[in-house]
Amino acid sequence: MSRVVYDGTPIEYDEGDTLAIAAVRNGQHPARGGTLCLAGDCGNCVAIVDGTPWVRTCQTPARPGSVVRRHPSGAHPSPGGPEQHTAVAVRHRRAHHVVIGNGESGAAAAAAARAQGDTVLMLDAADGNEVVGVFDGPTIIVRTPSGIDQLHAHHITLATGAAEIHPVCPGNMLAGIYTPRAAAAAQAAGVDLGRIAVVGRNLVAIHGEVGVSAIELADGTVIECDTVVADLGSAPRDLLARMAPMVPVSVVGPAAAAHALPPCPQEGVVCPCGKITVEDLDGVWSKGFNELELVKRASLTGVGTCQGGVCMPHLRAFVAERSGSEPQPFTARPAARQLTLGEAAAGYHIDTFRRTPLHAEHVALGATLDKFGGWYRPWHYGDPVAEYWAVREAVSLGDVSTLGKMIVSGPDVVEALERLYPNHVHDIKVGRARYVINLTERGHILDDGMILRDADDRFTLTFTSGGASTAEMWVRDWVETWGLKVHVLDRTVSHGAINVTGPLAGELLRRAGVADEERPKFLQHRRLAVAGVPCHVMRLSFTGEASFELHHQIDRSVELWQALMHLGQPLGVRPHGLQALFGLRCEKGHILVGQDTELDTSPRRVNMDWAVKLDKPAFIGREALVRTARLPDERRLFGFTMEGPAPLEGSVIRPVGGAADDVIGHVTSSWNSPLFGHAVLMGWQKRAPHADVVEIDGREAHVSPVPFYDPEGARARL
Amino acid sequence: MNEFVETLLDLPWQTCEPKPAYDVVIIGGGGHGLSTAYYLAARHGITNVCVLDANYIGSGNSGRNTTIIRSNYGIPESVRFYQHSLELYQGLEAETGSWIMHSTKGQIWLAHSVTAARTERTRALMNQACGAHTDYILPDEIKARCPQIDLSGGGRYPVHGASYHHEGATARHDRVVWTYAQGALRNGVHIFQHTPVIGLVKDGDRVTGVHTPNGTISAGIVLSAVGGHVSTVAGWAGVRLPIRTHALQAFVTNAYAQEFAPIVSSNDLVFYVSQTPRGQMLIGAEYDRQASYRTATSYAYLQACSAKATIMFPFLSKLRILRSWAGVCDVSTDFSPIIGHTGVDGFMLSTGWGTWGFKAIPAAGEQLAALIATGTPSPLIAPFGLDRFANELAMADPSSAGTR
Amino acid sequence: MLVSDFFDHLSGWRIIASPAALDAAPWPQGSQVVRISPDDVFLIGSEEPSVPGDPWAIVTPELGFSIATVHDLGALAEQHIEWALPTTRPSLAQGQIAGVPAKLVLLADGSTQLLVACAARHELQERLV
Questions:
Q1: Confidence of residue A84 (pLDDT cuts 50, 70, 90)
Q2: Higher model confidence: residue B286 or residue A34?
Q3: Which position among A561, A588, B278, C3 has the lowest Cβ density within 10 Å, counted as fewest Cβ atoms?
Q4: β B21-27/B169-170 pair status
Q5: CA-based radius of gyration for chain A
Q6: Which one-letter DSSP state was computed for residue A366?
Q7: Is residue A127 within 8 angstroms of chain B, CB to CB?
Q8: Core vs surface per residue A290-323: b (16+ CB within 10 A) or e
């Protein structure tokens, strides 16, 4: 004989016992009382099994050494403390026709389906396939001994039979009350139930202290007994079908049969999960909660662990008698059969974080990497200020492989780009590049990037790292909507890009084999070999210094990076991370879309009307900009300078001497400029007249023209 | 009788049929419609008011939300509005004598990346300036406030810090609905359940009443306080709304002993968890991306939410999911509510409550009632008028909206 | 082992052109044609192809993918793929595998290749182990 430990006491069980049977075999109620159905329909046998509370012991096989504890009396079990997550295995399976329940009606449905040539899969809890829910798909979620099955089916037949109705009367939470099928099951397992009294609707009360000692019938008869078998008929076990009203499920057999409601309950516990009594139902009814849903919500009947399995017939009978009309059952809420979060999580894969081709280089250089826009990116390499100075005074490398990159080509490509972007496109010469913003139909800034012309009918487009993921869809949607002939190829993950930036950037390229006269000038681009690696060299500037973005096939990224680091050593090259980059661009007053812009930022709010050509006949956002141009708009992004440490980004901007809650805007970018020795910031003033001096962090800040650094842009052209 | 039942106040239903005309007809007997009715009657003596609901009171989003009350928004106008609402909630039991099971828990809004930490710092700074009590806190304090958390985030989502909203709270959603219904009924407001509005009565451009299957009811003002189908109702008035409707799902576990004190949300992982006064762990995430009026729940949602929640709280993996549900949320293009005049005489709106409507019930009702009584929107709701979209004055606050 | 070790940088060409031009294109001998969509071909092989039928065709090297050989397609599908696999070969299937966007090339000889962007290879590799 094997043993389990039940509330601290080792008890013996027979082969094939569930934990509930093992308990009753030893003269104990598996929980603390209440009718046992031993069919998984109610919550009267739940206990803490091997540390997991709320387990239906009637559905759990007894295993050697299992430790079962009852839920604490009159209180909820502890959720448990910090502990490790144990992964649950998942299987994705497919079946043509699934029949849930292999009783008589299930077998008949399966046979009929097979006769039509269907392949049929039958699931039954007794065979270790516990169906916990039916969802859209249709997908059937099945708990098996090895984990969770996600079963994708074309046809589903529910043959789950009927659940027996529990008695509601005084004493109905005592131990020793069974439904007929539960009593039969216990007896079949060889359990001695003692003196048994079988009763029907004439039951009015059950007497006893902990266990049953007697029952009382409607005619006043009292019968002494150890076990009450209450035969009150049954109700369809159709929870799975009611949970998935939109999923085509055939319900057959007793699960679909009409049934009579039991008599209106007079006294006792209606909802064993919540210990809700008839008195409670009367209470809410008398207070004006006069329909099934309101009775449910006000009394909390039917929202416990059995999902209304026990109380629904009684609750409906109660409402039927009080209101004079029989209510439909309320909606059932997934999941049936109590899936754990660990089980539900099985098979879910969290978002991917992408790595650039230089990931290992950054790690080797001691970079602090962080998730940024779906990629792991170097935040800094230990000394962001030194990285800053390398850019301003020497030369530095930045990994910009995450930029959105796209090739577009076709007879209609110029027309398409003219419509996509608010800036002019047709006059970009081959070999030249232009900074562009793109707008939503409401005229709000969506992203920014570059347009580079490769040939009359072919361009390279870049987008921000954050905008890259939706850029292709954006271009394709519009081009297809307009019916223009344009080919689109996203290159974001196929091309790497290294930004060589700093006053010595040109010198580093020279050392990498690019002759001075080959080097593209500012806003030019050219295909060149750099250190032997074929590159599309784009001369732009985000940092404010001369910058060459080297776009290349990612199989050569490491080679290119290492060559540049090596060749640049005498020039003082070092890589820079995002922290230095954001400071550098802040000094140049370049906005970061999403940080310095908001959801509804129009170009004029960030002083970028120059990037919008309203003389063009059509582009996305034009109509909105034309309409809103007439409207007063006081929201503006400003540059500010201030002494002392840079305030935190997000700091509020107030009028000088204004009240504490007089907020006129907030700081969007903030940087302690090593070059200027004071803070440079960008931030909003959202009401006019705009002040020249504002208060930030308790200090004065002065509006300043941007760029703060090299306003003529001479450095980028060096 | 158990405590939950015993403490319920009566719903003193009117016994008459609807009158032919009311000063104000409110479509939608959820929290927003009922609170507006209550404040109209209680604060302004406007009692010739009726509330119509297509189903039973609180059957829509008021009974399908995650009961979180907070004011930690990202723009001053929202912080002020929701802070006022949060304070009204704090006083609602004293004002009405009705127990709404209000419980101040504090809300921890986790950041797992440098950028998210920046967002949470920004939130704290903006909140402090506008009257909401929010601080940026570090992992040690997070652990002290919530010992069940895995600060390493399973190795993938390490906690950098969090904003901590001291006054974040919860209340029992149904009881809020009933509290306002009781208050309104007691003050003479009529509430008719199972009375759908099937059209608006118009006199020229003006809305003058509502059609129901049982006839028309005239109204000085018709207020739409519906959730989920507001675009239809507004359409009857000829008003097009910048609103899209999405389902929001959530679920609870079985009940457990009270051991999880705060409300915890995650900026990067996008889920939130709290423990209800009844002991259930309540878990939600963002609304479904696909626009829809459906209230069915999906397994994909349970799966994603369970996976995210158990990354930060491994103890949840052994807890059992009891029930999931969905509400339908009207989400405006700037993620802020739309309250007040519509440009159509006689027709007002309270919508755009997305997934943040529950926390706004007291303030929106109170301020709308004042607007109806005085004709002028107060500074608290003036920024949230429908005309802001045409006037390029959107109240964009996407990082605070969510459902967290 | 569900799949072999990944080989980085599968070498090939990416061709975007009109569907008719792609249908008619004379692909270099020995190359393997993976038709990603009507206007998009991933050509595995080193020789540069040409698409005479479309003067605007984009023809560019493609080195952004990693490739692995699937050892046990049935087990891979059961454990990591929510969608139904094609029932015929040769064919191409695209979708999430273990939550990572990937492609399965089901070859006529019964073997199967798994393609994933190099940027997400580490994630997929970790999840399949």
A1: low
A2: A34
A3: B278
A4: unpaired
A5: 37
A6: T
A7: no
A8: bbbbbbbbbbbbbbbbbbbbbbbbbbbbbbeebe
CATH code, A494: 3.30.1360.120
Cβ of A493 and C117 within 8 Å? yes
Half-sphere exposure (Cβ direction) of B298: Cα atoms closer than 13 Å: 15
CA-to-CA distance for B6 and A707, rounded, in angstroms?
68
pLDDT value at residue B404: 37
Are A276 and B302 within 8 A, CB to CB?
Answer: no
| pLDDT digits 0-9 by tens, A236-267 | 988 888 887 778 899 999 999 888 899 999 99
pLDDT for B147: 95
Task: Judge: B298–A135 Cβ closer than 8 Å, yes or no.
Answer: yes
In C, minimum Cα distance to A488 occurs at: C16
Cα separation, A426 vs A420, whole angstroms? 12
Instruction: Sort residue A347 into left (φ over 0), alpha (ψ -120 to 50) or beta.
Output: left
Domain assignment present for residue A501? The answer is yes
Mean pLDDT by groups of 10 residues along chain C of 129 residues? 87 97 95 95 93 97 96 95 94 96 96 96 92
Q: HEC profile for A614-633?
A: CCCCCCCCHHHHHHHCCCCC
CB contact under 8 A, A355 and C119: yes
For residue B57, which residues of chain A lie inside 8 Å, CB to CB? 294
The closest alpha carbon to A540, from A527, A550, A529, belongs to A550
User: Phi and psi for A57 in degrees, rounded to 5?
Assistant: -70, -20
Q: What is the extent of the structural domain holding C21?
A: 12-63
Cα–Cα–Cα angle for B340, B344, B345, rounded to 5 degrees: 90
Q: How far is CA A646 from CA A577, A669, A679, A686, in A?
A: 19, 10, 5, 21
- How many other C-beta atoms lie within 10 A of the C-beta of residue A558? 15
Among A125-134, A222-231, A264-273, A478-487, the least confident range: A125-134
In degrees, rounded to 5, the angle at the alpha carbon of residue B260 between the alpha carbons of residues B259 and B262 is 145
Number of domains in chain B: 1
Same domain, yes or no: A558 and A419: yes
Asked if A554 lies within 8 A of C99 by C-beta distance, the reply is: no
CB contact, 8 Å: A343 with chain C?
A: no
Distance from CA of C109 to the nearest CA of A (A): 25
Which phi and psi (to 5°) does residue A246 adopt?
Answer: -90, -10
Which of A 633-672 lie inside 8 A of B, CB atoms?
633, 648-652, 654, 660-661, 663, 666
Q: Does any CB of chain A come closer than 8 Å to the CB of residue B268?
A: yes
The pLDDT value recorded for residue A106 is 95
Q: Is A454 on the interface with C (CB under 8 A)?
A: no
- Which residue from A352, A375, A409 is facing C99, i.e. has the nearest CB? A352
C40 vs A contacts (CB less than 8 Å): 489
Residue C4 inside a domain? The answer is no
- Same-domain pairing of A550 and A476: yes
Return the pLDDT at A329: 81
* Chain-chain contact of C99 with A488 (C-beta, under 8 angstroms): no
What mean pLDDT is predicted for residues B141-151? Answer: 96
Domain count, chain A: 3
Q: What are the φ and ψ backbone dihedral angles of A411, each rounded to 5 degrees?
A: -65, -25
What count of CB pairs under 8 Å joins A to B? 238
Most confidently modeled range among A251-260, B219-228, B265-274: B219-228
Is C39 at the interface with chain A, CB within 8 A? yes
Task: Pick the residue of A92, A358, A480 with the most C CBs within 10 A to test the interface with C by mutation.
Answer: A92
Whether A659 and A559 share a structural domain: no
In a domain, A700, yes or no: yes
DSSP state of B359: G
| C80 shares a domain with C49 | no
* Structural domain boundaries, residue A644: 634-710
Domain span at residue B213 reads 19-65+173-243+333-401
Q: How far is C30 from chain A (nearest CA, A)?
A: 22
